[in-house]
Amino acid sequence: MTVVLKEQVENIVVIYAPTGKDAKLISQILERIGIASKVCTSATEVMDQFAVGVGAFLLAEEALSKDLLNSLTHFLNKQPTWSDLPILVMSHTGLESPAILEVYNQLGNVTLLERPLRSFTLSSAIKVALRARLRQYAMRDVDKRKDEFLAMLAHELRNPLAPVSAASDLLKLPNLHRDKIKQTSEVISRQVKHMTGLIEDLLDLSRVSRGLVTLDNEVVEARQMVANAVEQVRPLIDERRHFLTLNSAPESAYLLGDQKRLVQILSNVLNNAAKYTPEGGQIILNTEVTQSDVIFTVSDNGIGMLPKVLENIFEMFAQAERTPDRSQGGLGIGLALVKNLIELHNGEITAYSDGPGMGSKFQMVFPRCYHNENEIVTPLAVLEPSVSDYKLLVVDDNIDAANTLGMFLELSGFQVDIVHSASAAIEVVANSNQIDACLLDIGLPDMDGNDLAKRLRSMPLTSRALLIALTGYGQQSDRIKTREAGFDYHFVKPVDMGKLLDALSSIH
């Protein structure tokens, strides 16, 4: 039995010219240029083939009966949103015929081919129609992946929300023991970090795909990049009891790029290997150095990939098959982000797999940067946050957010005033004798946070105070606005409290 692939059926040209030898001759012409066709002898056979699959419909003018036109109209009206079937009509009369004019107006995507018709003109018109149809199929696949992605996004966001909701209910209990409070707060912290990671991946992919990411380029040592990436992924590798093998190049090698992004690239690929390899599996990270390139290869003996998955693995919203419990998690956008970031570094990534159950291999190639190895780059020392009598002003119209941040800062040793509007902030500053730092939300109800920052810079008490923007907006354009308004730091919510304390340590 001959197996007809779905792709072959979807690209077939249905020919309906019931009189003469036109249909057979056209089919032979198309066969010679590698285009599959199906000759139909009745309107019923045409519609039956449409139900199976069709790439384009070619028919003769004389075949346009009222019944066929009604059936065609019914079929076209029920097309999915991505579909617009190309119809080619061979006509002697063209739009001068009322019947052809009716077809042209009623069926939509119609191309008229005037008889007598040369074979080159016919084949060119059909190639154009099939090329347009292929673009429609591509949009269908994108829509399908988008729908799957949105379903996965809802699932992934509900998962951490459930324990956060339960923990918040638990904290309302009056007799909750101190140990339980600590345990509950740790649950909330873990789940918020997980949700923050998901949202950051989404924002990262959006920024990169729109060309809004700028790289903080520096010279990065390959072995240090590997060490930092492994450190990030180590908890998952240990949890799943994987065996990780690191094969380093014998010589030092450097890359020119954004250290944070380079580590993100490698850790994302390692994270994928850990997620899609059954417990106790093998993961190998090889580093190879050539005269011109630094090559990282991550291979595993995990679930592998089908050729169809492999073909689209770096596309946005592409996902491999998930287990029913979706235990592997994630949004399926990590590799699209990785590919974009690698290309920003003038590198390339390639994926390999011999099939399901045969493991996967990802090879990342970056241009090598030659560097004076005697130069020692010393990282900035991390300062301990100040816990003296510094006084802070927190301005946020979200009362819960302001109060929890205020409590955290007070427990960290600061004096804190909390207000919920720009006008209240200005009043506090006008009636105070000390404000060392202001932490401002940008989306305030009565005045934009950037305008408030400019106002505070004009007031003697806060002209040299530390100004920190706390906002849900993290695009490069948003950071430029806060910098121009006079802010010293820009933090995207939810704020990493450790980094916030580091910033506050610079008050003096």
How would you briefly describe this protein structure?
46% of the residues lie in helices and 18% in strands.
In terms of structural class, how would the helical and strand content be classed? alpha/beta
Note the main sheet.
5 strands, parallel
Regions with little confidence, pLDDT below 50 for 5+ residues: 322-329, 373-387
State the strand order across the main sheet: 2-1-3-4-5
Strand content: 15-25%
Radius of gyration: 31 Å
Count, helices: 16
Number of strands: 17
End-to-end gap: 82 Å
Helicity, as a percent range: 40-55%
Outline, from the CA principal axes? elongated
pLDDT averaged over residues: 83
Written overview of the protein:
Helix 6 runs antiparallel to helix 7 and helix 7 packs across helix 11 (334-344). The strands form four sheets. A five-stranded parallel β-sheet has the order 2-1-3-4-5, sandwiched between helices. The relative contact order is 0.06. Residues 322-329 and 373-387 have low confidence and may be disordered. 46% of the residues lie in helices and 18% in strands. The longest helix is centred in the N-terminal third of the chain and has 53 residues, at 119-171. It is of the alpha/beta class and 508 residues long. It is elongated and about 100 Å long. The protein contains 16 helices and 17 strands.
What descriptors fit this protein?
508 residues; alpha/beta; 5-stranded parallel β-sheet
Question: What secondary-structure arrangement, pairings included, does this model have?
Answer:
Layout (H helix, E strand, L loop, with lengths): L5 H5 L2 E4 L5 H11 L4 E3 L3 H10 L3 E5 L5 H12 L9 E5 L6 H10 L2 E5 L4 H53 L6 H32 L7 E5 H18 L3 E5 L6 E5 H17 L6 E8 L3 E8 L6 H5 L22 H11 L3 E5 L7 E8 L23 E5 L3 H13 L3 E5 L2 H9 L6 E5 L7 H9 L8 E6 L4 H10 L3 E4 L4 H8 L4
Parallel strand pairs: 1-2, 1-3, 3-4, 4-5, 7-9, 13-14, 13-15, 15-16, 16-17
Antiparallel strand pairs: 6-8, 9-10, 10-12, 11-12
Helix pairs in contact: 3-4, 6-7, 7-11, 8-9, 9-11, 14-15
